[in-house]
């Protein structure tokens, strides 16, 4: 029996390493494709895939496909008809991976529940309704450490609310008071400094376009207010 998980991992390794040994054919396709994508668009790599004779065209973390003569461009997901495996989704997830240990955790609000052995980092905006919903979900999750980066992207007063939380004597309690109960933190002193700008720059660098966005210790991310079953299943897969 084929181990599907191992097969996908092998495929991702093949694609991620192939760009370092671009063939003459891949280079030729890159030269043909790039001018057809619009002025200023830069193709980072062209890689032959193991399926359907397609070539992966990567632009940042965006993926499209072409044929060996670069006559056609295909936009969408490559899905295995037998296993329903979405190879494109898996590839994009791999491209979006981060190095969790590089996150500046000192710029995040830390919450520990139970033994705290399971660790995640979350980008949240204080005005984000979906973030508040996910905070409710976290209420039912134990043995976890959550680092919350207050990522102010939704409203003009998001930075003010984040500053008030950051400058509170108990940051974690102040954040939960606001996100769970709508209880605002005391107004911060003007002299209190925050990591707001640092977190905003970090989120942009990591390509965080919405909140909440959850990062796991394996470097993968999960956007949106996922349900507890999905969240727990992901955490269990990291063991």
UniProtKB/TrEMBL annotation:
InterPro entries: DiS-bond_Isoase_DsbC/G, DiS-bond_isomerase_DsbC/G_N, DiS-bond_isomerase_DsbC/G_N_sf, Thiol:disulfide_interchange, Thioredoxin-like_fold, Thioredoxin-like_sf, Thioredoxin_CS. Residues 1-21 form the signal peptide. GO terms for cellular component: periplasmic space. Residues 112-235 form the Thioredoxin-like fold domain. CDD domains: DsbA_DsbC_DsbG. It is found in: Periplasm. It comes from the Bacteria. Pfam families: DsbC_N, Thioredoxin_2. Keywords: Disulfide bond, Periplasm, Redox-active center, Signal. Residues 21-88 form the Disulphide bond isomerase DsbC/G N-terminal domain. Belongs to the thioredoxin family. DsbC subfamily. PANTHER family: THIOL:DISULFIDE INTERCHANGE PROTEIN DSBC, THIOL:DISULFIDE INTERCHANGE PROTEIN DSBC-RELATED. Required for disulfide bond formation in some periplasmic proteins. Acts by transferring its disulfide bond to other proteins and is reduced in the process. This is Thiol:disulfide interchange protein.
């Amino acid at each position: 029996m084929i181990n599907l998980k191992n097969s996908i991992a092998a495929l991702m390794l093949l694609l991620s390493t192939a760009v370092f040994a671009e063939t003459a054919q891949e280079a030729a396709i890159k030269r043909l494709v790039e001018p057809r994508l619009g002025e200023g668009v830069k193709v980072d790599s062209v890689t032959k895939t193991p399926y359907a004779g397609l070539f992966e065209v990567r632009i940042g973390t965006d993926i499209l496909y072409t044929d060996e003569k670069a006559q056609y461009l295909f936009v969408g997901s490559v899905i295995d008809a037998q296993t329903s495996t979405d190879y494109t989704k898996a590839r994009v997830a791999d491209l979006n991976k981060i190095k969790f240990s590089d996150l500046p955790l000192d710029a995040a609000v830390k919450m520990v529940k139970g033994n705290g052995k399971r660790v995640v980092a979350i980008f949240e905006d204080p005005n984000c309704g979906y973030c508040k919903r996910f905070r409710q979900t976290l209420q039912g999750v134990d043995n976890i450490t959550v680092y919350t980066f207050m990522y102010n992207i939704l409203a003009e007063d998001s930075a003010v609310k984040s500053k008030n939380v950051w400058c509170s004597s108990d940051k974690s309690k102040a954040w939960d008071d606001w996100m769970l109960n709508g209880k605002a933190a005391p107004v911060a002193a003007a002299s209190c400094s925050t990591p707001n700008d640092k977190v905003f720059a970090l989120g942009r660098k990591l390509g965080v376009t919405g909140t909440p966005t959850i990062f796991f210790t394996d470097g993968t991310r999960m956007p949106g207010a996922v349900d507890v079953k999905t969240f727990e299943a992901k955490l269990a897969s990291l063991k």
